[in-house]
Amino acid sequence: RCPRPSEAIFGILRELGGRGGRSLPLPHALQALGARGFTPAQVSAALDEYEALDVLQVNPSRTSITFV
């Protein structure tokens, strides 16, 4: 089955974070996701969704993503 865009985005973020990765730079993630065809709106919605679920956090200056 095709995952929802937010599920696919989260999967890619986990890949980018690496095995046991706790955080990754947001600009790097945005570039990689854009290269895979995701729009900024889709990425923003996915980040909001997973932040609300307490799975990840984006710092206030929006420079890094931390996995909880």
Automatic annotation (TrEMBL):
The gene is Mcm7. This is MCM7 factor. It comes from the Eukaryota. It comes from Melanocharis versteri.
